[in-house]
Amino acid sequence: MTRMVTVNLKINGKQYSEEAEPRLLLVHFIRDALKLKGTHIGCDTGHCGACTILWDGKPVKSCQILAVQAEGANIMTVEGLEPEDGKLSIEQESFRENFAQQCGYCTPGFLMMTRYLIRNNEEMTREEIREKLHGNYCMCTGYQQIVDAVQDAQRKYFATKK
Amino acid sequence: MTSQKSSTESLVLQSEKGTKQNVGKRVPRIEDLRIVKGKAGYTDDIEMADQHYAAFLFSPYAHARIKSIDVSKALELPGVSLVITGKDIKELTKPMSSRAATKSPTSHYILAVDKVRYMGEPVAAVVARSKYVAADAAELIEVEYEPLKVVASIEDAMKKDAPLIYPELDTNEMISDHFDFGDVKKAFSEADKIVKERIRIHRYASTPLETFVVNAYYDPTREELTIYASDQQPGRTVQSVERTIGIPSSRIHLIVPPVGGGFGYKLAIWQYVALASLMSKMVGKPVKWVQTRTESLYAFHRPRGYMDAEFALRKDGKVLGMKLVDWQADANWPYVAALYSLIKFANMSGTYEIRNYSFEYHCVATNDPPIVQDRGVGKPFMAFALERMMDFSADALGIDRVKIRQVNSVPAEKMPYTAGSGEVYESGNYPEAIRRALEHSQFQKKLEEQAKFRKEGRYVGIGIATGIEPGTSNLGYYFLSKAGDPDYNGAGQMATVEVAADGVVKVNMNGPEIGTGHVTTIAQVVADVFGITPEEVNVDAWYDSIHGHLTYAGTYSNAFNDVYLGAVLTASNQLKDKILNIASSLLKEDREELYLANNYICKLENDKEKRLVGLKEIARISYGRLLSFPKGEEPGLKVTAGYINRTAKPFVRSDFNVQLTHSNSVHVCFVEVFPENWNIKILDYAIVHDAGKVINPGIVDGLAIGSTVSGIGGALYEEFVFDEQGTNLSLTFGDYLKPTAMESPEIRVDQMESPAPNTVLGTKAVGEGGAITSLAAVAGAVEDALKPFNVKITGLPITPEKIWNMVKDTPEYKKINKEGQ
């Protein structure tokens, strides 16, 4: 029998303690052990960004890291974006208003990137947004409406800071 | 003229009095409320009790005999409950057969039996308690192969002594045919000039971000198979599973949760649905398989091939005739063999009036992996070949590339137009689309900019291409190979509409939701029928085979806007009729004066709306208070209705309608090529897209842009590369290059609306247009940018390496390199 390791971490403000095989990928831990199904798997090789989460506020591709490495981590997944009042977050609202998703499979990864980008950059040009999103693949939209959404989200975010 | 009267007037939507019309509005997508919360619920998000997992062992060889398979080590691994190989499959299942090709192999099973025909063919399968153990077990299976000579190209396959992919057929050519439309001989004898070229297409594919996922459970207590699958054509899958593993279709319950991208790729999943179902029956557990990305890149692509094209030209640019010979390596999976060859000929003249042409096709089996009906099937290549030939013809005659397209466009007054093949272009205005594209793209200004840039030594070019975007497959090409009336046709669908017991309007389109905005589109249409808001319509995004469906049910062939909306509207109108009849009986009011608005049955009194009774109340009576329920009506408020596009016609060889609606577009692409590294940058991209009536501009713009970027990927980056042994070298996104946000251009879309007269709302095909028209627009632009080097682009993708090889021996190259020293 494979030796199991207990992994303790915080996701979306909630403390979890679950057993994992040492070789278990973090994304499988999140999806299969913790049943948080919003984080997706698109490529297995770190190219597509569907599994992007925020780890201490920074974007990480959760298919490129083992669950045991996340011991003590503070993680946010797409399920943590929604404010408690039941309204959509700025990122979610902007993605919806701009038709930034078609099949939606890549969307959680893009939303996590957007959460990070709009808070950690000065006002971005469309060209800059495109460059910063190059680690997230979308097979449906051709990216244009995603760029619209990120620009819109940043505008909205800055408006809350005024 | 673009406005034509609908032939199905009774179905035409009329917004109820006193309510807001939703069709045509940019309504934010309802499904997005779940998507942005990570709660869309894809197939892999569903787990069954006692869930088991499958893994497959795939062939590392493109062509080999299987000498032996040893599964003992895999079976010994704790947690493994089943290992099957071709031996079991040969006993338990029927082989796949051809649908469209005249020759049908008898040796191709859902797991390889005795030999493998492509790298990535499944050879053995495992079921285990966890996905990690299943993968471990697959690795422990030992297979001894005897490599066979690989058939790596069409030329190899057609050699006299070529190894046979299917020895039982005595040939590698599965079907070939020759059509003559008009008088080709005369056209060529009258030509001022003849232009001839071989145009090539490479192997590329749409790669939906969600891979194949299937979860099957055979319940022995009910003797029923329940399947969840990311499947684009579940109606057909049920039939194929029945045929292959012998479970009657009436005992198969197939559910398709929202699909994470389809693009045709997921028309091929049924093979794995059959495998998972069979294994579940064998082990008595629910069996889930989630394909890895590498596994998804093994197979189900677009085929490679080429077309030898010859154009007979009059000196003013008029194309008098064409001779086309098409070769496609599209036969190494009997299920879809020949579709790439067959789908082109009827629409081959594109948006042009070319009456005389011959079309010959050859569908060839090689050791290339199987193909699938990827976005547009053969039509992107069809348009690429035609549009490249238009450019070459213009150049040969010394006339303008725009002019030749204007000269040949089907004149507006000839619409509806019957092409030489019999294909009926029911609507559109092609000269107007070109005119609008020139304006929308600021073509004249682009020419001036280009002249300025060229003087500065910059390589900037403009490409223009037109494209026909057919929708709703009549699947008539089965008539070519099968006698009588084929069992399948794509010209109809079914849908279910109800007012549930709580008074809520609920719809199931009885087809898979693949990301193309069906939930919201249907909600907009149904909201207008019932006089409510789209948000109040509960559109179920799950396909469920227990609802009524036809045997070809699925989301494919650009048909949603035609047949699914037709079925939804038919069911909605029938239900509304029933509701108003019930209300009229109950209220003793004149039926003709009643209408639905804001969840009430209303009538006008002194021009003022009077609410007579709530929809909720009607539902209560219809479902429960049967003693109050009017006599002569059936209780319950649920209607499942079917719909057929009646312009579908049986095949006659000289008069052949492959598809029933025809959208079109004009793309203008402006690029720069950088001589430092021969990289290409798209500076501007403008599209005029005519998909008839637009129900939601936000959705339709997105599909036009997204499909175009998928084409740009095929034109510039994406290619499956194989070595001489047929080894696929492009098995991760590190090797198979998709366009990211960085490479993708800003695209400007101008929607033109020429309504189709043969669809319920005038809507037409939307999802494939960009993938069809973009290839030639990009190629034309790059070639124009490289004009000083005098290169000709006849194949894709146009990589920096290919450009360098084309330009490196040219005088211009020597000139700039001398200057650079």
Overall mean pLDDT score of chain A? 97
Overall structural domain count of chain A: 2
**What share of residues of chain A is helical?**
25-40%
Instruction: Give the neighbour order of strands across the main sheet of chain B.
Output: 3-5-1-12-9-10-11-22
> What's the CATH topology label of the largest domain in chain A?
Ubiquitin-like (UB roll)
Distance between the termini of chain B: 59 Å
CATH superfamily of the largest domain in chain B: Aldehyde oxidase/xanthine dehydrogenase, molybdopterin binding domain
Q: What is the CATH C level class of the largest domain in chain A, in words?
A: Alpha Beta
CATH architecture of the largest domain in chain B: 2-Layer Sandwich
CA-based gyration radius of chain A? 16 Å
Verbal overview:
The complex is a heterodimer of chains A (162) and B (821). Chain A contains 5 helices and 5 strands. By secondary structure, chain A is α+β, with helices and mostly antiparallel strands. Chain A folds into 2 domains: 74 residues, Beta-grasp domain (Ubiquitin-like (UB roll)), CATH 3.10.20.30; 72 residues, Orthogonal Bundle (DNA polymerase, domain 1). In chain A, strands 2-1-5-3-4 form a 5-stranded mixed beta sheet, with helices on both faces. In chain A, β3 and β4 form a beta hairpin. The mean pLDDT of chain A is 97. Chain B is α+β, with helices and mostly antiparallel strands. Chain B has 3 domains: 185 residues, Aldehyde Oxidoreductase, domain 4 (2-Layer Sandwich); 185 residues, Alpha-Beta Complex (Aldehyde Oxidoreductase, domain 3); 261 residues, Aldehyde Oxidoreductase, domain 4 (2-Layer Sandwich). Helix content of chain B is 28%, strand content 24%. Chain B is built from 22 helices and 29 strands. In chain B, the strands form 7 sheets. An 8-stranded mixed beta sheet of chain B has the order 3-5-1-12-9-10-11-22. Chain B has a 5-stranded mixed beta sheet with strand order 7-15-14-13-8. In chain B, α19 links the parallel β28 and β29. In chain B, α7 crosses α8, α11 packs parallel to α20 and α16 runs parallel beside α17. The longest helix of chain B is centred in the last third of the chain and has 28 residues. The N and C termini of chain B lie far apart (59 Å). Chains A and B meet through α2, α3, α4 and α5 of A and α1 and α19 of B.
